[in-house]
Protein 1
Amino acid sequence: MNGVASYVMTRAADEDDLAIRYASLVKRIAYHLLARLPPSVQADDLIQAGMIGLLEAARNYDPTQKASFETYAGIRIRGSMLDEVRRGDWAPRSVHRKSRLVSAAIRAIESRLGRDARDHEVAEFLSISLEEYHQILQDSNGHRLFSLEDFNGPEENSGPLDLPDRAAGPLEQLEGGRLHEAITSAIAHLPEKERLVVALYYDEELNLREIGAIFGVSESRVSQIHSQAMLRLRARLHHWTHSD
């Protein structure tokens, strides 16, 4: 066996050992995300994407950093899964268009009034009924067009621990820090109910049904509140995302 063949076989064996050792971590992250996504997303697709993220983590992990490999790998695995979901983008164009209109309406109203835009004001601005507005919120959240991870980037900072990309220069890291501060501030200034839903959903990792039980409202109403919070954040972070 020549040197190249030996190297290839050794690397393949190492990757197999890595996959076996951290398979439970990949599956745990996959099924946690799956509970928050529409039925069209398959667990096998998330797991496959997660395995790719695991291998990338093994190649890029720097043991001199403070984070353990499992913490670092978890962030990379989750980021890889989220990238896979975004690439699939199952939302109809009409849902994208309507969500952008809502975000623009919120931005215009809040700019004019200097306070949080209310449901009926957004509906009136768009010349639609309150029921139609709530349906747009429901559709937007159901398709998971975006989430807090989208404001943070596809992989880096997509978990509880901020790990800057080692390839990023000082300017990129500075901008990343400023974006993190902007997101934190924007969340802190959400209306109380939206802020609580975001905290329970992302920090406490409760699902919509569990949050609904806490508030004494239906799961669909929590879905609307969550969607409105995301659209409001998109409106307030428009100069960062340029997504509308």
Note: The CA atoms of residues 66 and 163 lie 10 Å apart.
Protein 2
Amino acid sequence: MTTATALIADDEPLLREQLAAALARLWPELQVVAEARNGHEALELFDEHQPQIAFLDVQMPGLNGVEVALGIDRRAEVVFVTAFDRYAVEAFRQGAADYLVKPVDEERLRDTVQRLRTRLDTPPSVAQSVASAAAPELTGLLEQLAKHLGEERRQERAGPSYLQWIKASVGHSVRLIPVAQVVYLRADTKYTAVAWEGGEVLIRTPIRELAGALDPATFVQVHRSAIVNLAHVERFSPGHGDSGEVHLKGRVERLVVSRSYVHLFARM
């Protein structure tokens, strides 16, 4: 069995956790030696731990995943993890880098694991020869992608467009719920429960997809399965250990804040 080390870089803690868990099931011998929350941290942790594989989210704060890959410069096998981006997916198909589309499908990840095992088992002299032959094409591809993603980032800074309405099926009709009226969202098996000023509804959109579409200045994750609207938060109460609870304005329910997100409420 191939033993290897890996770095996972993604700004969403839940996605890092899910990928690490899936890798543990499919490749028990793989050791995830570091997890990074952004591009700068990814490069720092890569230099510190020198993993053989880097799973890089394409869209990350600071440096994006493609820029991190350029910084790694073939010192590791790179697997990009991306939301469905037709441009990026097509480019990866034409290059030497592998990619996974969010949400990561475990069968697709199984293929990636097998490909990585094969590459790592290839004799160093052969691997170096193949890498050298592919290097100019891959570098050009990465530079092209970095330029494309940089332009997307500039457009986002100029005026990011966040979700304004949530569509919910109620009987045979569709209700449009203003996002400003949403109090919190909670994962509910295959659905997402949306608690808003007018009640509560279930929608089919996964909470992780909604998280990426909501304004991060207003909506923050408090738990792997819950997101709260800060405008509806009355106060925060520290709990046992490193956890806590969020009290909501005019509502009796409280939301548990896990240790990963307590720092967001430390000054409340």
Note: Residues 124-158 form the longest helix (35 residues).
Protein 3
Amino acid sequence: MNRIDLSGRRWALAFAALASLSVAACHGNEDWEPMATQKIYVADRFYDLVMLGPKEAIVIGYDGKLLSTADMGASWNVIDSGTEAALYSIDMAPDKKTGWIVGQESTILRTTDGGKSWQRQDAKMYMNDECREQGGDPEATEESNKCPLAPLFALSVIDENNAIAVGDRSTVARTTDGGKTWTATTLKPTLTEELDENAMIAFEDPVLYDVQFVDGQTGFVVGEFGKIMKTTDGGKSWTEKQSSLVGEEYIDIMDLPTFFDVEVRGNTAYVAGLDGRVATSNDGGESWTWVAHNIKEYDAPFYSVALVPDGSVWAVGASGQAVYAPPGGPLGKGNLGTQVNNWIREVKFYDEKVGWMVGGFGFIMNTNDGGKTWFRRIG
């Protein structure tokens, strides 16, 4: 495996994770509102959302699309994001007023009014240390640029001053002053064993697809080549935790599937990724085991997993696949109440009752009864 091969795989995975992957959903019995007032279109691709209350949510997506609702999706407002860049991840501080969005070409937006308005922050996150030191490519032209900006795929906001984003080539962007300044580094986990040449390439700069900090010190990052990394010192150092997934199914750590999402609640954690794979930890992310979803045809990627406060679990992904586990029970097919053929990029729960899903082809659904019934929201 050479560098070119890895680079091609890297961007193929990034595209697979964040672009259109399947045909449009079948919802023939639903009426779209008139074009003059329509806010959501079949062409929309939604990547993430944040919930501000039981009925309030903000949804982000392709081409700078930014929507808000205060009535559980019965009506929507279009918010000016000030950019046409794809917006991949959104998170809010505990005060529900301060928050950030990250996306394509190191786009970073900030709000201090609960998402009513957003301002772009001056942050250029280049994908290697040399480019960061020299502030980009001094000889860049329209045809050639040796220092492209890193796409930022995921974001975790700790409080009003501290936020961390991750992206391509193990880029980690961080602010400690409310976004006045951002610094970019390359995440380099602690090396615990001697690696061969191919493994060393994967070790050095895998794409990072998700990050979650559970407090100011403890956080997790997942990404390409099955990476699961944990910090207990606020991100100063990271250790890899995925080796416990190597066994009968994956005898080589290089064969582990890419993970797109990590979710942690207390000592329980889940990751989800390629090949329809889900893994869990019951010891705070120190060791991991594979979880069977018990649906043979679900071999497309899982992009998101949600741990509901009551102990139930949802995971969603490509081709509309969704799985659900009741508290303490096994995963099985999740009932969304309708045929869904588009990719589902994110699932999140506000509490034991209220949850949301977003994805491709203008897909937005929510529930107010813990997932027993789901409603398509088209405004």
Note: Residues 1-9, 19-30 have pLDDT under 50 and may be disordered.
